[in-house]
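COMPLEX REQUEST
Ligand: aspartic acid
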Amino acid sequence: MFVIKFGGTSVTKPESVANIAILVKKHIDEKPILVVSALSGITDLLVKINAVNSDSEQQNIIEQIIEKHDNWIDTVFVNDESAKQDAHFIVGNFLKELKQILLIGFTNQFARHDSVVSFGEKISSALISLYLQKKNINAKQVLATSCIITDNNFGGADFIDAATVKASKKAILPLVDAGIVPVITGFIGATTKGEITVLGRGGSDYSAAIIAYATNSDEVQIWTDVNGVYSADPRVIQSAKLLKSLSYQEAAELAMFGAKVLHPRTIQPAVKIGIPVRVLNTFNLDNTGTIITGNADNSDGIIKSVTWRKLAPLLNIYSADMFLSKGFLQKVFAILTKKGISANLLSASEVSVSITLDNIGLLDEALIELNKFAKTDYLDKFGTISLVGEKIMQTPNLMQDLFNIFQEANVPVQMLSYSASNINISVLVPSEKILDVVPIIHKKFIG
Ligand code: ADP
Ligand code: ASP
Ligand code: MG
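STATUS: Structure written out below.
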């Protein structure tokens, strides 16, 4: 049994949709469980619905959602009128349900947001399931609300371990045992009270890993639109190298520090039971992709990858008299946590702490509380560049060469962070300079 996840592009383009059926047929005896994302662009439109107020604006966005699905139906089910009819019926029903939700007065706007944005995956999983049925595959749509049980951190929920294992086994295993291929919605889950939650943007990778963990599957495969994980985003750095393998730690760091190919939390459930995560290309079925396991291996070189995050705002917090005493750091982090802010990099001195923010949560409220006992400044035009690789510090002259590059390119380095695990060196630089230096850094350290 293994879990295969198909991302937005993979479920949108007719050629990759055809490849999904080919893959499922080829591996049918290995009992595949599918997890799918929404069609490309649909989640963005659903997010927009939440942001507009008037009925006409909402209607306009719904029309765009209909148009994108209609185009999909026309190209994927070309010459099959009965399939087209079934597919239109599916989309129509879900959109009717969406319109009803838009009329309900939610007391919690975050809960409303998640209910609305869940429709992309609800529709895509039903359509992909229908497509597979038309290809004579015994497939069935499964809503992850019956498998992934989460906390109520709407917008970026996390799964509750025991409840998810129990629910997933109950919802998925009888289907697999009966020879049915479950087609599960990525991205979404539900609280113990049954409220719909989402796992964060790009979260379908995480969904796949959670399902693999909960069903004790042998492997998770993330099928996307590139051949695997590269030494840098291959759409930006043409000379980027495809990596044959990565350790869990390397993959987690790479995702956390900007490589969009994997959602940052994907690795966590896989590590728990030591199952491999493979990244593969739905548009090129012959490639072998990248395998991520517990083993560090230097066959791709010591420095595996250069990643960047265009936006990593910096929060500096100064306290002349009480730093490192009277629980200063503890107080700072308690406030950040309470206001939904998570940190990425951290650097501390005797009198100050600098933190780059992964997400800004309720920043204004946090600043008011922090300013009661410290001085703060917030700089939002910065981003990070990171070098990732186990044993990275074995690279001769690493720091010297890196800083020479910044000096020659006249790029000021605002902060440096080097993780104790020796896996990641990150520097904070002005966002607008990142793409000037990334190609130079990649060339110098990876080639
Ligand atoms: P999906 O819709 O399949 O989830 P994403 O767009 O989320 O796909 O992720 C795939 C994209 O990630 C690629 O098209 C590529 O541009 C980008 N990417 C960024 N960094 C990397 C990297 N190091 N290796 C591979 N792809 C990367
Ligand atoms: N559809 C969701 C998003 O666009 C989840 C995903 O694609 O992984 O963020
Ligand atoms: Mg993705």
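REMARKS: The chain has two domains: 2-225, 306-445. The mean pLDDT is 95.
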